[in-house]
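SAMPLE LOG
Freezer: B-3
Tube label: C17
Construct: single chain, 325 aa
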Amino acid sequence: MLLNIIGLLAGFLFLIFSADYFVKGTAAIARNFGISPLIIGLTIVGLGTSAPEMLVAGLSSLQGNTGLATGNAIGSNIANIGLVLGTTALVAPILIKSSLLKRELPVLLAISIASYLLVIDGDLSRLDGIILLSGLAAFMYWLLRSAKQSKANNIDTLDVEFSDEIPSDLSSTRAFFYFLAGLAGLIASSKLLVWAAVNMAVAFGVSDLVIGLTIVAIGTSLPELAASIASVLKKEPDLAIGNIIGSNAFNLLAVFCLPGLIHPGTVDNLLVSRDFPIMLGFTLLLFFSAYSFNGQPTISRLKGGLFMLFFISYLSKVYLDTIGI
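STRUCTURE (predicted):
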């Protein structure tokens, strides 16, 4: 058991550092080719922050541990809003200025509902995976088009914040090294993480779904937590919430599709009846929190505390269901 715990912690640690190198390298390469910071941030960085979940889902699906893969995708979305956004708002209230983010939130809600409807029958088929993958292509196209329209009309605050964050001093050679080192680290750490998580599920006598929803989901959300807290401390609130919205959309379209494409089959009943509705509830809370009829919409410390409280309650629910109470 000690070896599994060490493997899990080492996997998380290397996953965080590898994801950071991967995103920096990829973003710098794109910037060196003249791609605008807003497009890089919305697409490349957004997809890159979901790279840990993608690799964990892909590797676990190849091994037949689809519960770990689906649990990681849905659990990460819950953790991103409940834990990451809740903690970030407690550190500093998040003032939402970007008009692009306000347009992106309804799209995230639509993606969440559509994903739920695909598995409400208790099955994640290869066709479902293809539909989600097609949705990813459509979402990327929409992001690119929205970014170009936003830049044509005026400078969105998100564009300025992305421009400040994307490395501008990395040569193409160094950026490519960051990219390769990050990718290699992601693959190795994901394999270690999946190995340790599956062993712990067997040792504790719980399903791989539970491990995916809790330990692995929280662990793979740590890069978003670090990035979001750093963003609000640097007075870049739109970047903090933008990371979460983008990550959640990509988790459903680019991560949740993998079990269907690689190892299609039935999904756990609890995922359909408990976890997916709770994820939709968190997404609705985020949706309504991001709009205001009086002044600038703000996710206050009070709202952050409520997100955290709901997240702790969810973890308690998973624990009680696991021990059969």
